[in-house]
Amino acid sequence: MRALIIRNVLAGVVAGTVIAALAGLGMSATAAPAATTDLKTVPFEVSGELPIYPKALYKNGSSGTSVRKVEARLVQLKLLEKRYQDNDFGTMTRSAVKKFQKSKGIPQLGYVDQNTWNKLSAATHEPTQAELFPPAPVVNGKKLDARCATGVALCIDKTTRKLRYVVDGVVKMQLDVRFGAVKTATREGSFTVGWKSRNHVSKLYDSKMPYAMFFSGGQAVHYSSDFAARGYNGASHGCVNVRDLGKIKVLFDEVNVGDKVIVYRS
């Protein structure tokens, strides 16, 4: 009870001091300062970007067939290389969209809003099936994996034991390869080159792996002196071995981080 009385007394003192100060300034304690501006709300659509920006139909991180159609139209205008027509709205697609927006004198948002889509549609034709999904390359009368048909790919066939360097559906180089043994099998699937190491040495196996292009954990495409000497009598620890030193030197310089690696059986 005593504490409550003290708090009330203190509050009264503070209030009295404030009132006295206001009176000294010629102001009423009950008067409120006059509003100088009227606040107005501006309608907008929330799009995941800043609220004042138009809604994004396709943006960085979007994926799917609709994105492929956008990319195909950008390819038609030669704003995007065909290798980047891959269903994923990434850095190169974003750059191409900004170039298109600049050419049309509209804000360079870097994503496709309704206005950009309308202008892009008007400037291009509906992509054909062949433009969207080019036929797989054919080597010696046999089709490669369809995933090798677009962009840049290290197309690795475990059945024929061949690695083919494919650019926009054209086979640029073909190399003999061997794979891991049963207990250290080379993984199959769709990957990308994660990193490269020209003079790599395996810490796990204490063996040289020159011109290594890693695509799945510790598995990489690389030159193997053992493969060059013993051929298919040996096996790797899971990597894709190449025995032609001259060719892999050239291939190493051609391949970029992010290029596709497709390992499959035909």
Automatic annotation (TrEMBL):
Pathway per the UniProt entry: Cell wall biogenesis; peptidoglycan biosynthesis
Give the signal peptide, or none: 1-34
Gene Ontology BP term (one): regulation of cell shape
**Superkingdom, natural source:** Bacteria
Question: Active site annotated at which positions?
Answer: H222 (proton donor/acceptor), C239 (nucleophile)
What cellular-component terms does GO give this entry?
extracellular region
- One MF term from GO for this chain? transferase activity
Q: Tell me which residues make up the L,D-TPase catalytic domain.
A: 152-264
Q: Could you tell me which SUPFAM superfamilies the record lists for this protein?
A: L,D-transpeptidase catalytic domain-like (SSF141523), PGBD-like (SSF47090)
Q: Which UniProt keywords apply?
A: Cell shape, Cell wall biogenesis/degradation, Peptidoglycan synthesis, Signal, Transferase
Name recorded for this polypeptide: Murein L,D-transpeptidase
